[in-house]
Amino acid sequence: MNPMASSTFDPIGAALADYAAGQTEATITVHSNVAEDEPLPAKYFFRTLWEMPELERVALDECRGRVLDLGAGAGAHALELQNRGFQVKAIDASPGAVQMMQQRGVREVACHDVFELSTRLSEERYDTLLLMMNGLGLVGTLEGLEKFLDLAKPLLAPGGQILATSSDISYLYEDEDGALVFDLNGPYYGEVQYQMSYREQTGPEFHWLFADPTIVQDYAEAAGYEVEFVAEDEQQQFLVRLTKL
User: Fold this and answer.
1) What is the pTM of this model?
2) Which residue has the higher pLDDT, 135 or 6?
3) Where in the numbering of this chain does the Methyltransferase domain appear (predicted)?
């Protein structure tokens, strides 16, 4: 982690702007407390439908009604849904990402995080809340997951659904024999701490939640949702549908 981190620097927004200006190799560096640094090319945020992972394409096919795209990035999913005739509102906490979506033609855009939904969108109702790219991680922690599931309810129209992807990262904690080694006195193993760097500047630290299927089911059912696991891939990532009862 970079001790010179800025609380105001927007790594994603800066990288998206550079990519759109022609710097096609613009790449963010992702730091975490569970893995080595990883590159995140800005190009990935501009992927087309057929460049998306299968789980994302399935999720887009499962959308219905008015859609709220959370953590929308550069608007790849929102633009695809608009092209299909959906009314979509796209939300991101990155001011640069929001500006990029506006430039790319996303019609309804707003800049805030998922925990501001109930105050910013108090009068709005949606048939689908969409959270892609391990999007359920936006809630940060198990406490955040519980809070988000409650905040989302008033936003959902009768019979409305949350479509979200998440991953089970327990494989990161396997020893040489394949046994799982956790700190039972520590936080849930799927609560990860991140920072992003770009152009030798580092953004603020943030938490991201990789909730395994059992956790998702337990928390969602406790919050009053019906749970359906729609699809999964070979990287332990899955797509879940939570339907408001």
Assistant:
1) 0.92
2) 135
3) 67-160
